[in-house]
Design a protein that fits this description.
46% of the residues lie in helices and 12% in strands. It has 15 helices and 10 strands. The strands form 2 sheets. Strands 1, 2, 3, 8, 9 and 10 form a 6-stranded parallel sheet that branches. Bound molecules: zinc ion (ZN).
Length: 304
């Protein structure tokens, strides 16, 4: 019997992911489009009994009244890195929160028993941050209801940039984070082939790095936009099916990730994603594959 597992992690961020380029993207993404993309996604996962790790930007999952209770921290952050915070904080103060604050989306994942993870409090990436900003971010996180209501232990670092000092995250109750795979030209060209991803290199890699477990980086579901749109959808679907088959054969973990808003900016991705998740669902039903969230992966590793 195979011990293969399927893990899906989602970077849930709305406009926070583009805070440093806010005005360029603000016409592409809004609450209505986000609601419909998240609904599509949640329904598909539920139909196929797949449970994911939904890593939320804490502010994105918080309502405006609560967030503004901590305007002293927001103002402090703004001063330390105006390039990241100016546009998005001004929008919140002006009560233009479209695509910026959507706690109802976080509740959708909670209701369906998905894991809520952390994708930064305000999505500032490590290359723009410093130790003062990191502390303020974690301080804000600790004060917001989300951190009190859910046991949040899994991190997806913004823009996949792993900070140098991980000890501080352990102190705030986190146990693991998603690793980062650096893509290059060969990796990108590999998207045009139906060969499975080399899971043998990624096999259940839980490095115990500075007190946090590193979960294997997984692979980005091809986002068919710009040059990436040259990869035919059927090739992407076939590649993932081959990867799943390979994982079942060798008892490995398949890890897929993307941003739910990619489904808005490249609607073709809904086709690839539903085909792949329906296939995962068939394999779960037949008992060949199990759906595992990050926290479950860590615990299964500890119990071995
Ligand atoms: Zn992100």
């Amino acid at each position: 019997m195979s011990n293969a597992t399927f893990t899906l992690s989602l970077d849930c961020e709305g406009m926070w992911g583009m805070a440093d380029n806010f005005h360029k993207f603000k016409n592409d993404i809004n609450s209505t489009l986000l609601n419909s993309a998240y609904d599509f996604l949640i329904n598909l996962l539920s139909k196929n009994q797949v449970h994911c790790t939904a890593a939320f930007v804490t502010a994105f999952g918080t309502n405006r009244d609560e967030l503004l209770t901590f305007n002293n921290i927001l103002n402090e952050l703004h001063k330390l890195c105006p390039a990241w915070y100016s546009s998005i904080i001004n929008e919140i103060y002006r009560n233009n929160t479209d695509g910026i604050l959507q706690p109802e989306l976080l509740r959708l994942f909670e209701l369906d028993n998905h894991e809520i993870g952390w994708h930064g409090t305000t999505h500032i990436p490590a290359n723009l941050s410093n130790s003062n900003i990191d502390l303020l971010e974690l301080e804000l996180f600790k004060n917001l209801t989300i951190s009190k209501k859910y046991k949040i232990e899994s991190i997806v670092f913004p823009r996949n940039i792993i900070p140098e000092n991980l000890n501080i995250y352990k102190k705030f109750g986190f146990s693991n984070y998603r690793g980062c795979l650096h893509s290059n030209i060969f990796y990108n060209l590999n998207q045009f082939s139906t060969n499975p991803y080399k899971l043998d290199l990624q096999e259940m890699r839980f490095l115990y790095k500075e007190s946090l477990y590193e979960i294997n980086s997984g692979h980005f579901l091809n986002w068919p936009s710009n040059l990436r749109s040259l990869v035919p959808i059927n090739i992407t679907v076939e590649k993932w099916k081959q990867t799943i088959n390979y994982a079942i054969e060798h008892s490995l973990n398949v890890h897929m990730w993307f941003h739910p808003h990619n489904l808005i900016t490249a609607p073709q991705m809904q086709i690839s994603f539903s085909n792949i998740i329906n296939y995962v669902g068939e394999k779960i039903k037949s008992g060949e594959l199990k759906s595992k969230k990050f926290g479950e992966l860590v615990r299964s590793q500890l119990n071995q």
